[in-house]
Amino acid sequence: MSRREDRPAPGAMNCSQVSDLLPFFVCDELSAPELEAVAAHLASCATCAAQLEEERALFAIVSDAPQPADRLDPSGILLSQCRSELAEGLDQIAAPPAKTRVRPLAWLRRYMVLRPAWSAVFLVLLGIAVGSRISFLQTGEVDSGGSRVVRAAPPLTDEQLAKMAVAGIHYAPASGDEPGTVQLQLSAEQPYVLTGPLDDTGVRRVLTYVVENGQQFDAGTRLDCLDALRAATKEADVHRALLAAARKDGNPAVRLKALDALRESTEQPDVVEVYLDALEHDSNPGIRVEAVNVLVGSLERQGEASVMVLAPPPPR
């Protein structure tokens, strides 16, 4: 194939000149005069016309060949997730930089680095003092019957939830008879750590709020909340949050995880409706494939249950 700058001037062309321009002709990369000259020659030359058909066949084969990106990410989930994370990263970069906070105890850090032995003693004593103080505060009041009354933290209001940011989530799965425990590091007007079992309504309120209001939190935080809520899908507030995330979340990875958490609840009509809606309208092919698999599996389970009900009892 000849280089573009070495092409002959438009006009009457011979077979050799037209042969060099046929690949550009197929790809529509010729100028208007060149296009007219080549078309005029092809109209009168059967050999060049046959060569043009070969070039077109080769171009079609190359165009239909599978691309490496299609083999690595056939469903497009990875590409969609990367685009979403890139957009969120650009938004964070465009945000004004946080003001540098004054650290009045910076001298204490330098002192502890230079004197590690005394620093260890100081930290042990500080831990004992703080632990005893926290234990005193958590003990609460004791009524006349001798039972302990624990002061529960007041639930977060809607205004507080709207202003808060989740700095970290740690979920410890259930072991034995003990329910799973969630630890939430919240950054609000006054940062604090919220710890409790998953069956605690205050903990679930924060988790479901993050899932239902995805525009306020990053995708990683929403995915962590979904991981924790998988163990409480029978709760009404969790069920409602999973349905909302599966329908409205802008990140396909979050929508896919919400649908996966609902796969064991396909006996409920609203869950089936969500899967059908994802199958018909979701733009991500991976989510549509997941919806098909779950719906087919649900139909198979219903068929097996019907067969077991209709089967005659074994002879005695």
How do the strands of the widest beta sheet line up side by side?
3-4-5
Give me the count of strands. Answer: 5
> Any low-confidence stretches, pLDDT <50, length ≥5?
1-5, 139-152, 307-311
Report on the biggest sheet.
3 strands, antiparallel
SSE pattern, N- to C-terminal:
HHHHHHHEEHEEEHHHHHH
Number of helices: 14
Task: Give the % helix.
Answer: 55-70%
Mean pLDDT: 76
What amount of the residues lies in strands? 5-15%
Structural class: mainly alpha
Q: Could you say which overall geometry the principal axes of the C-alpha atoms support?
A: elongated
How would you describe this structure in keywords?
316 residues, mainly alpha, three-stranded antiparallel beta sheet, 14 helices, 60% helix
